[in-house]
């Protein structure tokens, strides 16, 4: 049996039946349309985009390590890591 992929933000497994999405490490609007992507829990992906602008993602936060190093995303990842992989929550609006 193939191991489950791990979310690069929260490092929890991503079961096939949970909401998930591909994150472009360089945003499509910033030239990353054909660039590398990573599979993430949908809640983690939404948190990335509610925290960082497309320009910030393209310029500074274009690796999983950089995303995990962002203070707000690190706090979110620590919080969500205690939840089951299928956990969903309303992500608050943008807090830039």
SSE order and pairing:
Elements: E1 20-24, E2 37-41, H1 42-51, H2 54-59, H3 64-69, H4 71-80
Antiparallel strand pairs: 1-2
Helix pairs in contact: 1-4
Strand order of the largest sheet: 1-2
Q: In angstroms, what separates the terminal alpha carbons?
A: 42 Å
Shape: globular
Measured by DSSP, the beta-strand proportion falls in 5-15%
The average pLDDT score comes to 91
Low-confidence parts, pLDDT < 50 over ≥5 residues?
none
Tell me the series of helices and strands, N- to C-terminal: EEHHHH
Number of strands: 2
Oligomeric description of these chains: single chain
Helix content: 25-40%
The total of helices stands at 4
Radius of gyration: 13 Å
Output the structural class. alpha+beta
Can I get a quick summary?
With 96 residues, the protein is of the alpha+beta class. Helices cover 33% and strands 10% of the residues. It has 4 helices and 2 strands, in the order E-E-H-H-H-H.
Please characterize this protein's 3D structure.
- The chain has 96 residues and is α+β, with helices and mostly antiparallel strands.
- It has a domain at 20-80.
- It is built from four helices and two strands.
- α1 (42-51) packs antiparallel against α4 (71-80).
- The longest helix has 10 residues, at 42-51.
- It starts with 19 loop residues before the first strand and ends in a 16-residue tail after the last helix.
